[in-house]
Amino acid sequence: MDLDRALRISASGMAAQSTRLRVVAENIANRDSTGGTPGADPYRRKTVSFRNSLDRAAGVETVRVNRVGTAAGEFPERYEPSHPAADARGYVRTPNVDSMVEMMDMREAQRSYSANLSVLEATRGMLSRTIEALR
């Protein structure tokens, strides 16, 4: 049934984007989390990668979260000599989280989630109308 396939595809997209939104929220929440001691690494930004997955029961390709990894890159430094994590020069290593990038990523995930939800609702409506027509 094609409507069943549409439901499965939309549901997998919503699940993947939900994970992405959770990771973005975690990144934003930890954007000021520095290391506790001098030289300790601060919070490292997390990223989500996706993969196609064959749903053999429905015979369709769906999207799944491949992995939640960490972003490479240097940690920015901020001069704050009174901070407990400041090194001998007075610099504190800060997380590699950019609030603007996270907000853009959040908006993209939110729009993708909404698009999948719209498809899910339209498909469910078609199923309801089909059942009503068969009565």
Task: Explain the layout of strands and helices.
Layout: H1 2-29, E1 46-55, E2 60-70, E3 77-79, E4 91-93, H2 99-134
Antiparallel strand pairs: 1-2, 3-4
What does this structure look like?
This protein is of the alpha+beta class. The protein has one domain (2-134). It has two helices and four strands. The strands form two sheets. Strands 1-2 form a two-stranded antiparallel sheet. Strands 3-4 form a two-stranded antiparallel sheet. The longest helix has 36 residues, at 99-134. The model has no long low-confidence stretch (mean pLDDT 92).
Class inferred from helices and paired strands: alpha+beta
Q: Give Rg in angstroms.
A: 22 Å
Order of helices and strands: HEEEEH
Q: How many discrete domains?
A: 1
Q: N-to-C terminal Cα separation, in Å? A: 19 Å
Main sheet overview: 2 strands, antiparallel
In total, the number of strands is: 4
Give the spatial strand order of the biggest sheet: 1-2
Tell me, what's the shape?
Answer: elongated
Summed up, the helix count is: 2
Content of β-strand = 15-25%
Features:
alpha+beta; 4 strands; two-stranded antiparallel ribbon; 2 helices; 135 residues; elongated
Summary, kept brief:
By secondary structure, the chain is an alpha+beta fold.
